[in-house]
Amino acid sequence: MSETAMRLAILGAGGLGKAAVQIVSQKRSLHLVAICDSRGYAYNPSGLDVQAIMKLEPDQSLAGIPGDGKASTDSIGEIIKLGSSEIDGVLIALPNLPNEFIPGIIERFIEAGFETAFSDALKRTSAMEQMFRLTPTLKQVKSTYITGAGASPGLLTTAAVLAAQSYMEVEAVDIWWGVGISSWEEYKATVMEDIAHLPEYNLEKAEAMSDEDVERLLDARDGKLELHNMEHADDLLLELAGVVDSRDKVRVGGIIDTSNAKKPVSTTMTLTGKTYDGKTSSHRFILGDETCMAANVIGPALGYLKRARWLKDNGLYGIYGSSQFMPMMVG
Amino acid sequence: MSETAMRLAILGAGGLGKAAVQIVSQKRSLHLVAICDSRGYAYNPSGLDVQAIMKLEPDQSLAGIPGDGKASTDSIGEIIKLGSSEIDGVLIALPNLPNEFIPGIIERFIEAGFETAFSDALKRTSAMEQMFRLTPTLKQVKSTYITGAGASPGLLTTAAVLAAQSYMEVEAVDIWWGVGISSWEEYKATVMEDIAHLPEYNLEKAEAMSDEDVERLLDARDGKLELHNMEHADDLLLELAGVVDSRDKVRVGGIIDTSNAKKPVSTTMTLTGKTYDGKTSSHRFILGDETCMAANVIGPALGYLKRARWLKDNGLYGIYGSSQFMPMMVG
Is there a single domain that holds both residue A123 and residue A204? Predict the structure, then answer.
């Protein structure tokens, strides 16, 4: 552990949380000290044993980790109790079901006076609106939070802010993503959140589904979900950054294939605008097909967490959108 | 003029400087108060008449602007004399011939205690190294400077930092640009700097060429210059941001067609890396062919200037690379 390494807590140990553990284990400047799931948590100030976490069965709780694991009915409360003297940054890799789940957790951190840096991969506009309401209280406790720091919103939103620099007026931002996973169970929460975007579904309806319900739905669709006009906070973040004057200029959709790790389409952000000399054109940012969802969500989320810590260390507190700052490289 | 508009000075009135004037005239939050060329300058605290600047003949000095224009053999000295109480931001649109020209100008601002925000579109690595040596003195005078804030380095470099977030290790960053201009005289300084990158040329040799020499060279090459392995500060900026561990992983080249406004190739940044799960892949950022060089250089440079001002207003002084921050939208 280098002296300047960030002591990290990860909230959530599903598909994305586990991928985060793997990525963090390959980064010298990050030092995983705490992680929790709904049934327990693991903590070790000298660093958690990544292999022990990866060896857990898919349905086994972190409570089962020999030595460092403990069962708890309020594992997030346990992380909060550790205190900000033990944790330099918190990566939130929790599913946001229901919509007020993550904002509610942050309120608990604030109430406890927990002073740190946070990032999340929150997706829904309505959830992010709740997050931004926490600005004054986050400032009071001297915490800094970057929200929407995954792939979309996150990486692709920030690429749109960059692309917008060439234009006088932005006419449209189209985000069209492709995700391929070998089984839906690998990323249960992500798939549930995606189902909630289907025209005939919503968050409550998706949350109430059993595993068998989900499998029936996926089977009927050949394992694929094609989503259009998704409620994604790219619109709020691009409005906040001044890229669009109206949220309806931002359109997000995509295809997730839950039966094939190969992406069904290339994830692409296309920004169309008008230049100072009256030309209409489009800049594009295209993710390599071989990069999986976890690489494109967790990589940026950690880069933004480092930026959140930088902001905090420079006395800039409160909540920011991923569209407002560059993620930093995490070595 | 809105109360929060940035009072802007532009150094340089060549092709890029003139394009900057046009772009600034379409931005409500920027207020052009001063501009200079080698033979004179124009100043008006209530805002310069953009039409009067655009009406000047290509070879006519700003000194010829009725009312606001004045001849001077030290026009940059005249801008410095205006003082930082009159200017909120300085956009440097000067050719950097010779290599120490722009660093030398900034030293003059520093010596005068001029406290403001700056951005430039500097290209050469060796020139940018000189710029970074000014860090301590820029901090002393409470100025903030973002360097390499054009297209390459600038827009494309920052896209590389974003793209790198998905990868554990970056293997290569390839920037391949295309520029089309209807005549070389429109962007004389840019073409001269490009000629200096040809294998058999250097900055001194390019600087010594007459207009007839340049025309002969371009005619012999069908109006096109194809450049490989250019000395471009994208390498330094990506090393600084931690994207590459070695500058030779960054390659910059491109084609400029001086006889056709249509781009000969699409400007593309390709970043290739290895993911946490061992895959090799590439993210790409592609500029729309209809966007001209000026839109892609001056747009970002103004966005970074606004960011430099934001940093200064938050007490963060010194020099930063474009790879370290997001440009802000300029409304």
Answer: no
Residue B269 lies in domain: 155-291
Please tell me whether residues B198 and B212 are part of one structural domain.
yes
State ipTM.
0.96
Task: Among A161, A287, A325, select the one facing B166 at the smallest CB separation.
Answer: A287
Nearest to B268 by CA among B174, B130, B153: B174
pTM beyond 0.90: yes
CA–CA distance, A265 with A279 (Å, rounded to integer): 29
Closest-approach residue (CA) in chain A for B282: A288
- Kindly determine whether residue A289 and residue B281, on different chains, have CB atoms separated by under 8 Å: yes
Which chain B residues are within 8 Å of A280, Cβ to Cβ? 290
B250 strand-pairing partners: B173
Using DSSP bridges, classify how beta strands B169-180 and B224-227 pair: parallel, antiparallel or unpaired: unpaired
Domain annotation covers residue A330: no
Q: Do A165 and B155 touch (CB under 8 A)?
A: yes
Backbone angles phi, psi at A149, to 5 degrees: -105, 25
- The answer to the question of residue A329 being in a domain is no
B286 and B159 in a common domain: yes
The answer to whether residues A312 and A203 touch, using CB atoms and an 8 Å cutoff, is no
**Would you give per-residue pLDDT tens digits along chain A (331 residues)?**
345 899 999 999 999 999 999 999 999 999 999 999 999 999 999 999 999 999 999 889 999 999 999 999 999 999 999 999 999 999 999 988 888 999 999 999 999 999 999 999 999 999 999 999 999 999 999 999 999 999 999 999 999 999 999 999 999 999 999 999 999 998 888 899 999 999 999 989 998 999 999 999 999 999 999 999 999 999 999 999 999 999 999 999 999 999 999 999 999 999 999 999 999 999 999 999 999 999 999 999 999 999 999 999 999 999 999 999 999 999 9
> Under an 8 A CB cutoff, do A295 and B167 touch?
yes
Q: What's the domain count of chain A?
A: 2
Beta bridge partners of A268: A176, A286
- B43 and B121 both lie in a single domain: yes
Residues of B with catalytic function = 123, 193, 197
What's the DSSP call for residue A36?
Answer: E
Residues B113 and B218 reside in one and the same domain: no
